[in-house]
Amino acid sequence: MKILNVYNNQLKMIKEADHIYGISSVVTEGYADSISERVKEGVPVELIVPLHVAEKLKKSLYLKKIEALKNYENFKLMVMDEDIKVGLIVTDKRLSLNLYKKEGIEYDISTGLFSSDSKAIEWGERLFWYCKGKADFTKMQI
Fold first, then answer.
1. Can you tell me the distance from the alpha carbon of 70 to that of 77, in angstroms, rounded to the nearest whole number?
2. What is the DSSP string of the chain?
3. In this structure, are residues 97 and 113 in contact, taking their beta carbons and an 8 Å threshold?
4. Where in the chain are the domains?
5. Which backbone phi and psi does 20 adopt, to 5 degrees?
6. In 46-76, which positions are buried (b, 16+ CB within 10 angstroms) versus exposed (e)?
7. What spatial distance separates the first Cα and last Cα of the chain, rounded to whole Å?
8. Under 8 Å CB-to-CB from 85, ≥6 apart: which residues?
9. d(Cα 45, Cα 43) in Å, to the nearest integer?
10. Architecture in CATH of 2-134
11. To bridge 49 with a disulfide, which of 1, 28, 53, 98 should be the other Cys (CB 3.0-4.6 Å)?
């Protein structure tokens, strides 16, 4: 299905990465499983989620996955106390950027911007570090 192209490309990015930075206001089981696998393989992963997603994670089927990762030094899950209207995955090799639809209510899973250009990756890293500066640096309390 064409609608899954963005999702499948992002999972491939995660699988091929030597480090992963992410910002997300949504979570899926596929993302969670892929991230968990990479953390257990020793890949550094830093994720930022808004508070409302962090609260959902504490009450959902993802709780066991997060608990299994909380003692890994190469995994950081940070919480930002404002609504994030972007999906960003930045690795050492690629950038993926997804936005909400025009109304700002619904996440657009069907379109995304991908790049392997070094300037795009640098831009994505700067966006991540900017948001990280606004996030709670302590690991999410489970």
1. 9
2. -GGGHHHHHHHHHHHH-SSEEEE-S---HHHHHHHHHHHHTT--EEEEEEHHHHHHHHTSTTHHHHHHHTT-TTEEEEEESS---EEEEEESS-EEEEEB-TTSSSB--S--EEE--HHHHHHHHHHHHHHHHHSB-SPPP-
3. yes
4. 2-134
5. -135, 125
6. bbbbbeebbeebeeeebeebbeebeeeebbb
7. 36
8. 25, 99, 100, 104
9. 6
10. 2-Layer Sandwich (3.30)
11. 53
User: Looking at the predicted structure, is the pLDDT value of residue 142 above 50?
Assistant: no
Confidence band for 1, pLDDT divided at 50, 70 and 90: very low
Residue 86 amino acid letter: V
pTM of the predicted structure, to 2 decimals: 0.86
Cα→Cα distances 94→48, 56, 84, 97, 141, Å: 18, 28, 21, 10, 30
CA gap 97, 113 in Å, rounded:
5
Q: How far apart are CA 49 and CA 25, in angstroms?
A: 6
Q: Does the structure show a pLDDT above 70 at 70?
A: yes
pLDDT of residue 106: 60
